[in-house]
Structures are given as structure tokens and as C-alpha cells.
Amino acid sequence: MEIIKKHIDGGRGFDWGRASEDYAKYRDVYPPVVYERLVELGLCVKGQRVLDIGTGTGVFPRNMYKYGAEFVGADISENQIEYAKRLSEKAGMNITYIVSPAEELEFPDKHFDVVSACQCFIYFDKKIILPKIHRFLKDGGHFCKLSMIWLVEDSEIAATSEKIVLKHNPHWSDHSVKRYTEVLPEEAAGLFEVADFSCFNVPLTFTRESWHGRMLSCRGIGASGLSEKEREDFNKEHMQYLETLPESFEIEHYATVFTLRKI
Fold first, then answer.
1. In the 8-state DSSP scheme, what is residue 68?
2. What is the 3-state secondary structure (H, E, C) of 123-184?
3. Angstrom distance (rounded) from CA 167 to CA 183
4. How does the average pLDDT of the chain come out, rounded?
5. Is the pTM of this model over 0.85?
6. Mean pLDDT of 174-200
7. Phi and psi at residue 174, in whole multiples of 5°?
8. What is the C-alpha separation between 126 and 140, in angstroms, rounded?
9. Would you tell me the crossing angle of helices 156-168 and 228-242 to the nearest 10 degrees?
10. CB-based contacts of 221: which residues, under 8 Å, 6+ apart?
């Protein structure tokens, strides 16, 4: 399903379903420290119900499954959910998946202990989704927002790859992102309070193939409306660049875990 947001990519449409194959293969890169931080906070563990909105291929619930919570994953893209189901079933995981925009989800009041959003909160209408999350959560329940970015200021490889993406898709707006501190969204006032903000500098190791796959699965290439020719041109130029690099290398990333408590 194509999504259009005025504040993203200059209002040009994108569809994560176009990137599902690469997304399933290359986007499961969150480090253990992120998931372990949630467990330290007593979140997404045995005895709890968790709703993961914008679940994509189920990266978050699949990685947290071993801690014992009961998960529901929801995503607007049918293709993303299809891959989430395949990967979960292959791993023997009992996770429920729903195809739906987050803003249109309906569950009983106070049904979940935790609602999570991993690498996707920018796509939601905060005026709709935050009151809805508040209603879905039990008293004292938590909303967890997770994010991880590569750092062009700390990685020449990431900076060069971004330049190549922008050459072929100058409308892509997710570039040149720097470290940041999360703050309570104004739409959350009166609904939530900040419970915790944790951040981590994480060097992740990639091969040429996995880094190329990571770039293919970004919104600027895989989910965009680029033509087949434009994608082929990106592939060729990016691979030519990667051939000048060692077979494996590190890319510095910045990961955040931001938790809000229902009030």
C-alpha cells in the first residue's frame, strides 16, 4: 500500500511492500543491548501482552519472543506481514499478525501492557495514534519507541552510500541524521509521562552484500517509486563503490529506547 506524507520525501509516495524481500533479509540488525534494555525495565516479558505497531517483517516481536510476552504485530503492508508470518512460523514462534494502518486498529480498552513502535513512529498521525495507544494500554502501561540510525558523521562509508542514494532519489528525506535526545511529544501531554530514555553507540559489522542490502531496503531505494532502470543504476553505482572496500567493515550506529508511561 502506497503511503503519502507531506513531511516525508517531499510528499512522494512510498510502499514498504516493495522492499519486503530485502527488508526481511537485511533489516534485522538491532543489537541485543536494545532488547535487553527493555527487559531490564520489565517490559515485553512473560505474562505481558504487547502490541507492535508498524511491525514490518516482525523484527521486534521475533527478537523479543524468547522473553515470554504474548505479541500482536500490525502493519499497513500486506506484503510485510506475509514475510513476518513466514519468518515467525519458520522459527516456531506463535505471533499474531494483522494487516491494518495503526490509526485504524481496534482493541478493547486496557488490553495491552506494552505498545511498541520500532523504527516507524514518523509514519503515524500522532493526534490519532497516541490517544489510541493510551486507550489500549492498561493503567500504568508503557509505550516504547525504538530507533536506530547509521551516523554519517562517524562513517565515511555511510556518508558515501547516502550520497549515492540521493543521486538516484534526491527526494529521500532520511539522510544526514545525527544523534538526538527524545522528548515527550506535545500530543502526548496529559496522556503519558517519560519513563526512561536510553541511548547506545553501536558499531555494527557488515559485509559488502549486507550493507548493500541494507541500503536497498531503505525507504529511499526499496520502498520508493523509483523505476526499474533507476534502481538498476543505483545497484550498479553502489556496488562499484563497495568493491573498493574491504569485504567486511563497521558502521557506527546510534540506537535509542524511549519509554512513556500511561498516566
1. B
2. HCCHHHHHHHHHHHEEEEEEEEEEEEEECCCCCHHHHHHHHHHHHHCCCCCCCCCCCCCCCC
3. 33
4. 97
5. yes
6. 97
7. -90, 65
8. 20
9. 160
10. 19, 165, 168, 169, 215, 231, 234
Cβ pair 78, 1 in contact under 8 A: yes
CA distance 45 to 159: 37
Closest to 215 measured CA to CA, from 200, 199, 237: 237
What cell was used for 263? 498516566
Beta bridge partners of 74: 53, 98
Phi then psi for residue 249, to 5 deg, are -165, 165
pLDDT tens string 29-56: 999 999 999 999 999 999 999 999 999 9
Give residues with Cβ within 8 angstroms of 131, minimum separation 6.
Answer: 191
Q: In the structure grid, which three cell numbers stand for residue 85, read together?
A: 508470518
How far is residue 235's CA from residue 69's CA, in Å, rounded to a whole number? 40
Q: Tens digits of per-residue pLDDT, 254-263?
A: 999 999 999 9
Q: Which triple of cell numbers denotes residue 237?
A: 553505482
Rounded Cα distance between 103 and 100, Å, is 8
Report which DSSP code applies to 214: H
Phi-psi map region of 104: left, alpha, beta (phi>0 left; psi -120 to 50 alpha)? alpha
Beta strands in the chain (DSSP E): 49-53, 70-75, 96-99, 112-118, 137-150, 192-207, 248-262
